[in-house]
Write a sequence for this structure.
């Protein structure tokens, strides 16, 4: 017994050379060995898939590699946040598609959250009608496939709005018609940078005042008198002064009705509106349920205690219930944000030029490099989802209950 | 859900490409014979080229090419599995082996023929791209279309040609791009765009599906060459030859006056050209791995090229497209098939 214990101790100190059987029966090294084998098998499998694909592509005379990203695209895209013409490269078209996806995802997340919070809170309202209406909203919208909603909204938009020549004239030289909403676009003149600089200076000064005021509140319990207003005034007034001091350095490119279309200015495409509307309304139904669950998850005693302290109904909600409910809400909310982003690929059905439409659609078809294009597209969605997750986890960690 | 299915389809196609072991080594002819059916990729629906009727029977010029090849291989034109594909899906479906013949009003271009792993086997329809507009706009020429919104289907040469045309003429336009034809037509119908552009043949076909076809006109400009034809996977010359020569046989049949009606009389003909085509003389079927009556079977199934044309898109059809460039070479057209000898 004692001898064996000695042997084990010696093995662990590495003094006695171990036989292969010893290594095999040691759970720790056996585990390592098995894991190494598994990793090797996965690497081998990956290598096989890649080399096999390359082989087959060559055999079938299909071009491969990523060189196509430099080639001229040759097609046009209806909406682009960066400069793009049909002489730009496929790589540029990729960025156009990606930015369009990010645009609709970012706007969609904000809208869905706003609508979702309102409907979720409304569902808990003591007003019978409001609560029932919110209930109907949730039950109807979350049970309709998003693709159908997109079609419904898109064709509803197209059917109700007038042709360009009968555009509805809105204030500020704006026009609304079946091709979208055209508004004047600002063209910045020399001197605009001073306005931007003034805005930044104002913002810094305001932040400083607010910070000082907050610090003073912590130490003395009183804020600096009027700190909020002074800060806000700095943010607004400084840039305004600069704007007039530099002769209003902006002119507007106003839309005009042409033979076919309203030309000039900025146009908000009906495809974007339909996609944004469809995705936000659909996701908001799920967000509403999450918010409701979160609020109901806050123990009743908290609310009762707040009421007992004499807080108003709004204050109870704002100061006591929601901060605690957020802890329950944030993790499932992340899922909904990811869903919304991924659902944005439905854009292809209604002609909004998102990443899937432009890159995994048109570019794939013009270059015929399916594997490369699909791989890039999958990698992009994975990255967007992971980044969203990381941000939301960080936010969640900040909001989590800190226990001492 | 549809998005998920699509993603899955794409994944399957991609992994199919990645995993299919040594596909080129197996002959497509053997695969088709073993399967007992020809898997043929067609359009999801353009009247006259490929469209299903209310009972699910496919017909059209492109469909007849599938039928003719099936008849040559199996002696039975019904042994075809039709796979409806969008413009975007078509090449991947062929590359991955889901279909063995792509007969889907596809333009023969150099990049598709060389770096996309396809081999085009002939031109079944000489086409060109045109523009369709509502009469109300009073447009007489494509040169007046500056600043117009144009509806177009993605994944087509159309999308590139329209960009080229407006660039050449120093005009601007606003593209509205859809993946599927029905949505493209719906958007044009709803006034989302002023112009619908596609191959001229398709414009005539689409016009018939609009509420009031007479409200729309096709502008006179033809802005591109669109030689449409069937394609097969690159790397199997025998299969490419079968598809190529089946079509040539149909064109030669028209030239020699062989129709589906007088076919059996013609087998008794003394004309050596006819005898070779119908397998009475020579071993031409053996050269492509089929029996010597391959052309006979194909003509019996769909008639000669002239009959195919007239039945599907020409005088006997609703489209009433004139033969034009698609007439035989001796009638001033471009259809010309090498001789069988």
């Amino acid at each position: 017994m004692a001898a064996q214990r000695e042997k084990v101790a010696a093995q662990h100190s590495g003094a006695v050379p171990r036989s292969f059987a010893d290594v095999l029966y040691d759970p720790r090294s056996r585990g390592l060995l098995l894991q190494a084998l598994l990793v090797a098998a996965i690497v081998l499998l990956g290598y096989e898939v890649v080399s096999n694909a390359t082989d087959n592509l060559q055999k079938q005379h299909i071009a491969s590699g990523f060189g196509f990203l430099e080639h001229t695209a040759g097609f046009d895209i209806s909406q682009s946040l960066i400069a793009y013409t049909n002489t730009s490269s496929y790589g540029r078209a990729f960025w156009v598609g990606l930015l369009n996806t990010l645009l609709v995802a970012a706007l969609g997340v904000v809208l869905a959250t706003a609508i979702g919070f309102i409907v979720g809170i409304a569902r808990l309202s003591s007003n019978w009608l409001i609560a029932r209406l919110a209930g109907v909203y949730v039950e109807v919208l979350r049970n309709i496939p998003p693709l159908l909603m997109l079609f419904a909204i898109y064709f509803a938009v197209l059917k109700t709005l007038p042709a360009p020549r009968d555009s509805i004239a809105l204030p500020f030289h704006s026009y609304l018609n079946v091709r979208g909403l055209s508004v004047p676009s600002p063209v910045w003149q020399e001197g605009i940078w001073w306005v931007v600089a003034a805005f930044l200076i104002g913002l810094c000064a305001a932040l400083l005042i607010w910070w000082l005021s907050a610090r003073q509140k912590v130490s003395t319990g009183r804020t600096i008198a009027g700190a909020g207003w002074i800060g806000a005034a700095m943010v607004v007034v400084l840039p305004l002064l600069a704007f007039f001091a530099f002769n209003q350095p902006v002119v507007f490119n106003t839309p005009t009705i042409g033979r076919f279309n309203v030309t000039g200015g900025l146009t908000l495409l009906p495809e974007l509106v339909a996609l944004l509307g469809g995705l936000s309304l659909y996701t908001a139904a799920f967000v509403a349920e999450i918010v409701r669950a979160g609020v109901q998850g806050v123990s009743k005693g908290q609310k009762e205690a707040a009421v007992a302290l004499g807080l108003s109904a709004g204050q109870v909600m704002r100061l006591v219930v929601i901060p605690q409910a957020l802890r329950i809400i944030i993790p499932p909310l992340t899922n909904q944000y990811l869903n919304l982003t991924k659902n944005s690929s439905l854009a292809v059905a209604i002609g909004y030029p998102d990443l899937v439409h432009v890159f995994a659609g048109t570019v794939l078809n013009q270059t015929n490099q399916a594997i490369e294009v699909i791989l890039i597209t999958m990698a992009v969605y994975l990255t967007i989802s992971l980044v969203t997750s990381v941000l939301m986890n960080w936010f969640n960690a900040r909001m989590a209950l800190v226990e001492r | 859900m549809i998005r998920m299915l699509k993603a899955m389809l794409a994944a399957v196609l991609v992994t199919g490409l990645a995993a299919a072991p040594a596909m080129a080594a197996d002959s497509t002819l053997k695969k088709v014979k073993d399967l007992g059916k020809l898997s043929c990729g067609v359009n999801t629906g353009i009247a006259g080229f490929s469209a299903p009727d209310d009972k699910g029977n496919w017909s059209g010029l492109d469909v007849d090419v599938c039928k003719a090849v099936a008849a040559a291989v199996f002696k039975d034109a019904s042994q075809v599995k039709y796979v409806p594909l969008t413009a975007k899906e078509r090449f991947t479906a062929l590359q991955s082996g889901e279909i063995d013949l792509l007969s889907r009003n596809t333009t023969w271009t150099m990049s598709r023929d060389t770096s996309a792993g396809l081999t085009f086997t002939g031109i079944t329809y000489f086409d060109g791209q045109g523009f369709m507009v509502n009469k109300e706009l009073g447009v007489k020429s494509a040169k007046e279309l500056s600043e117009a919104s144009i509806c177009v289907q993605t994944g087509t040469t159309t999308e590139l040609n329209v960009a080229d045309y407006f660039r050449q003429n120093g005009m601007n336009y606003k593209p509205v791009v859809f993946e599927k034809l029905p949505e493209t037509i719906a958007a044009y119908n709803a006034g989302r765009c002023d112009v619908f552009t596609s191959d001229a043949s398709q414009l005539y076909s689409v016009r018939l599906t609009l509420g009031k076809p007479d409200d729309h006109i096709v502008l006179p400009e033809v802005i591109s060459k669109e030689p449409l034809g069937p394609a097969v996977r690159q790397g199997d010359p025998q299969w490419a030859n079968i598809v190529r020569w089946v079509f040539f046989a149909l064109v030669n049949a028209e030239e020699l006056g062989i129709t589906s009606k007088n076919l059996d009389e013609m087998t008794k003909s003394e004309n050596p050209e006819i005898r070779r085509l119908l397998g009475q003389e020579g071993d031409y079927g053996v050269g492509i791995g089929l029996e010597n009556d391959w052309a006979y079977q194909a003509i019996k199934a769909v008639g000669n090229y002239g009959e195919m044309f007239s039945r599907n898109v020409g005088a006997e059809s609703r489209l009433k497209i004139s033969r034009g460039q698609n007439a035989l070479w001796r009638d001033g057209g471009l259809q010309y098939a090498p001789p069988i000898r």
About this structure: Chain B has two domains: 27-126+228-331, 129-224. Residues 237-255 of chain B form the longest helix (19 residues). Residues 129-224 of chain B form a domain with the D-Maltodextrin-Binding Protein; domain 2 fold (CATH 3.40.190.10). DSSP finds 14 helices and 14 strands in chain B.
